[in-house]
Amino acid sequence: MKIAYILNTYPQPSQSFIRRELKGLERLGLSVDRIAMRRSDLPLKDPQDREELGRTSYVLEAGKVALLLSLLRALVGRPGTFAAAWKAAMGLAAVSPLGRVRHLIYLVEACHVLRLVQAGGVEHMHAHFGTNAAAVAMLVRVLGGPSYSFTVHGPEEFDAVHSLSLARKMEEAAFTVAVSSYGRSQLCRWLPHTAWSGVKVVHCGIDPEMFPEPGEMPDKGLRLVNIGRLSEQKGQLILMPVMSRVVGEVPEARLTLIGDGELRGALEAEISERGLGDHVTLAGWQAEDEVRDALAGCHALVLPSFAEGLPMVIMEAMAAGRPVISTYVAGIPELVQEGVTGWLVPAGDDAALAEAVLALEAMSAEERAALGRAGRARVLERHDMYREAEKLAGHFRAAVDRG
Question: Transmembrane stretches, by residue range (predicted)?
Answer without folding.
Answer: none
